């Protein structure tokens, strides 16, 4: 998905330290004549470990034009700050009408792009719903209206989502009148869900509020016409839907949570 990536080794710069060879997940890199070399019989998935670990800048990743950040000797994140941020995080269901700036939304999506993916597949893409947000919400609400009617007629043999309230099936039920929503789409739902978590953290760092709209994804994935209108490919799934905007509520403290359920084996 996306650009073709090629690992290139500059033999003149290579010092033969072997760090890239030792860190290659698929053993694509080998030592030949005291230099790092590529074993053409192995399949590289372009994770970039070799590029990131090489002290001599002898490895290049061809086909990419992305910012490279030199890393300090200590972690970027302070553990106390991160824990506090996670404790303070709230799902926002009241949004101001003020739309989020495009620059901020692009930064939110950038956080999703930078999130790790299985086998470095980088196969998550993002659909920003803004101008059509009310129309798309109406489509899914109509699906839920039909489903709730079938449930009533069948004596609740038709299963509805936990906590579902048919009396609230009006505009705002799904997106809570947020000015926009972002869909994380991928053939692998785990990749898209990981991206969504990073995006939420970035949104909050930018002063935006987020709520995961879990009630949107299943009916949207089942709606053939909606999938076609959103250009969702057959092999793809909408794994996460984030409603985003400026919060119209202020929380004054964190809320207690249950202790972790841990089993040590």
TrEMBL record:
One of its GO terms (molecular function) is metal ion binding. It holds the Pfam family Nitroreductase. Keywords: Iron, Iron-sulfur, Metal-binding, Oxidoreductase. Belongs to the nitroreductase family. The lineage of its organism: Bacteria, environmental samples. This is Nitroreductase:4Fe-4S ferredoxin. It comes from uncultured bacterium contig00013. Residues 5-34, 35-64 form the 4Fe-4S ferredoxin-type domain. It comes from the Bacteria. Gene3D superfamilies: 3.30.70.20, NADH Oxidase.
